[in-house]
Amino acid sequence: MAASRRRTTRSTKKSAPRRTPKKGGGNTKSGGRNKSGLLAQRPRRGRKSISIKDQGMRAGIALFILLDLLLVFFFIKQCAKPVSDPLQPLTQDTVKRPLQIEILNGCGVAGIANYYTEFLRSRGFDVVKTDNYIEGGRVCFSIDKTVVVDRRGNIKKAQKIAKSLGMKHSSVISEPNEAYLIDASVIIGADYESVPAWQWMEKE
């Protein structure tokens, strides 16, 4: 009886239906087959065009970064330059200007100071005053030798003026005075005719 029951239970079990592949259902994706049974290939994308675009973008970014670095470099360089103090007084060292001098008649010859004024102006000096020599509050015409007097404590400037007149450095004396706003004074003495500048003026 048990054997007959086992046989009946086995016979009542239904076998699972087998799946049959669909006709014409070939997948066109990678690994699928088309109607002819061959593997379908994916269409190739334009890799070259994409890579060229990427390279262009990278080059543009690199160029932008380089320009930024150059701007930062020039900005730092400009900031590193020393800035002059606007409150600092302007001197001959900061602003180049012609030497300012005065011509004083110390011999009493009429018009002699005007001749020397024209001569020195033609040599590039700024003659700001032409007058008689005053000593002790009075006009003095008793100067024997022509001299160049340094008024600012820079004897080299006075020597430059003397050289333009053809005079030796021994004719330069230094008498700095803060009251003077000029570089030097030229006091014409009785020996004015022996000064080389006078001889040059006669030839001209």
Please give the structural blueprint.
Elements: H1 2-12, H2 47-80, E1 100-105, H3 112-122, E2 126-132, E3 134-135, E4 138-139, E5 147-150, H4 155-164, E6 172-174, E7 184-188, H5 196-203
Parallel strand pairs: 1-2, 1-7, 5-6
Antiparallel strand pairs: 3-4, 5-7
Would you give an account of this structure?
- With 204 residues, the protein is an alpha/beta fold.
- Among the domains are: 53-80; 100-203, 2-Layer Sandwich (Alpha-Beta Plaits), CATH 3.30.70.
- 36% of the residues lie in helices and 14% in strands.
- It contains five helices and seven strands, in the order ααβαββββαββα.
- It has helices at residues 2-12, 47-80, 112-122, 155-164, 196-203; strands at 100-105, 126-132, 134-135, 138-139, 147-150, 172-174, 184-188.
- A five-stranded mixed β-sheet has the order 2-1-7-5-6, with helices on one face. It has a two-stranded antiparallel sheet with strand order 3-4.
- The longest helix has 34 residues, at 47-80.
- The radius of gyration is 53 Å and the shape is rod-shaped.
